[in-house]
Amino acid sequence: MKFCKNCGAKLRDDSKVCTQCGTNQSESTQNENNTAHSEYTRKTPPSEPQKPMDPKKKKILFGSIGGVLVLAAALFITYKILESVYSPDGMVDDFNNAVANEDPAALKDAVSTDISDEEAAAYIAFVDNEIGFSQFGSWMNEVKENLSNDGSSPNITSNGYDLAAVEQTGKHLGLFDDYAVTIPKYNVMTNNNNIVDTFSYELNGDTVEWQTSEEKFNELIPGKYTFSGTGIKDGESFDARVSIDFADYDSSGNVGADLDVDLYYVSFSASLPSSYLYDISEDDISFNMNGEEVEETELPGFDSTFVGPLKNGEEYEFTGQLNFEGETFDMSPVTLNISPEDLSGQYNPELPHHEIEVQFDDEAITNHYDTVQEREAVEEQREDFEENLEDETESFIRSYFTALQSMYFMEDINEVEDYIQGDSDIESLLQSNIDNSNFENMTISNIRFSNYSRDGDTIEIETSTRRNHDNLDSPATFRTKYTIQYNSDDLSLIITNFEDL
C-alpha cells in the first residue's frame, strides 16, 4: 500500500492520481519520495503513516472558501448595480424615457425638482408640440456624451430658457458620484384687467385662489398649461380658465398667462334720425334687462359704459325707452344668448363685450320732433305776441276799420267776418246797416287809441276816429269802446262787442 505524497491518503498501489486531493502520483515522484523516505529512515526512527483529513472538517473548509467566493461575487454584483443606479447615464435615460413615453408619474420620479402632476403633463405636452421627442432624445444623448467625456452637462435650453439640467450634487455612499436632473421654475405673470376679482383652480390636488390684483399668477416649470376653474366677479361665479404657453416666453424672464372667463359686457349704440338736431342725451334713454331696469357702469381704462357682467350661454332680453319732449318711445326688444364664438373678433380681448344696436321708431320720433318744433315756434310767437299784445290789438282794430270801409263800400258782411264774432249781435247790427244802406261810402281816418285793459283773455280798448259817409253832411269824430276776445292757442283776436261812447 502507498500513500498520497500530498495529503497522505491511502492509495491503491497502481493509483496515479490521489482520489482525495487530485495530486499526480508519477513514478519518478514516487521514487524520489521513496528515496527520500529511505534516507530519512536511516537517520530517524520510522514514523507512522499520516491519517486522512476528517470529512466533516473538509466540508467546513470548502464551505468557508465557497462562502467567501459567493460573498465576493455578491459584492461585485451589488457594486455594479449601484454603479448603474447612480450613473448619470441612467438618470438621463430615466428622464428621457419618462418624457418620450409621455408618463407624468415617471417624470416626477426622474427629477429632483418638486413638481405637480399638472406640471409634469404640461412639460411633456410642451416637448411634444414645440420640440419633438426625437430632438429631445438627441439632446439627452449629447448630455450623456458630455458627462462621459469631461463630466460637464450643458443646460438644455429652448427659446431663451432652460428646460433641464444634470448636475453632480456630491457623493453617494462615499463611492459614487451623485447626480440630479432638475427642471427650473419661472414666474408666470398676467396683465391684470379686473375681468374677475379672483380665480380658483386645482393644482396637484389642492385648490389655489389667485387674486387677480396680483400680477404674478404662479411659479411653474416650462410647459403648455390650461387651468380650468372659477372666476368671481361682484360675488357671482363664472367658468374661467388660464392658458399658459412657454413658447410665448419673453426676454423679461417671465411667461405670460391669458385669463379667459365665460362672461361678457354689453354696450349700447343708439341710432336716431338726425339726432344731432334733437338734443337727445344718454340720460334720456333707459334700459331693462329681463324686465328689470339696469344701470350702465364705467370700467377702468374704457371710455364707454357697460352693462354686466353676463354669463355666456344664458338668455337675456333687453328693452328700452326714450323719453323725448314729454313723449316715450320704446326700443325694439333684443334677445341675447352669447357664446365665446359669437364674441370672436368683435371685442378687445381685455374686455369681452357685445354691442347692441338700439332701434326706435324713427318716423314716430321725427313726427314728434316736428310737432315739438311747431309747438316751440308757436310758444315763442305767443310770448312775443303777448309781450306786444296792446300793439297787436291796435293793429287788429286798424285792420278791422279797413275791412269795415270795404264792407260798406261792397255791401258785403264777409269783408269783416275775420274780425267779428259770427252769429252775434254785432254781426246782426252790421248786416242791418248794410241792408238799410246806412253809412254808405264810409271813410275812417285819424284813428286814436286809449284806455287799453286786459282781464285774462278779454281785452277792452277805446278808439277815436274821424268818419264820413253819405248820411253825414260833414265828417264827424266818433268814440267807440271795443270788447275783444283773445285766443292764446292760435294767437287770434275777435270783436265780440262794441259800444259808441
From TrEMBL:
Residues 19-55 are annotated as: Disordered. Residues 390-497 form the TcaA protein NTF2-like domain. Signal peptide: none annotated. Residues 19-38 have a biased composition (Polar residues). It comes from the Bacteria. Keywords: Membrane, Transmembrane, Transmembrane helix. Residues 3-23 form the Zinc-ribbon domain. InterPro entries: TcaA_2nd, TcaA_5th, Zinc_ribbon_dom. Residues 89-183 form the TcaA second domain. The chain crosses the membrane at residues 60-82. This is Zinc-ribbon domain-containing protein. It comes from Corticicoccus populi.
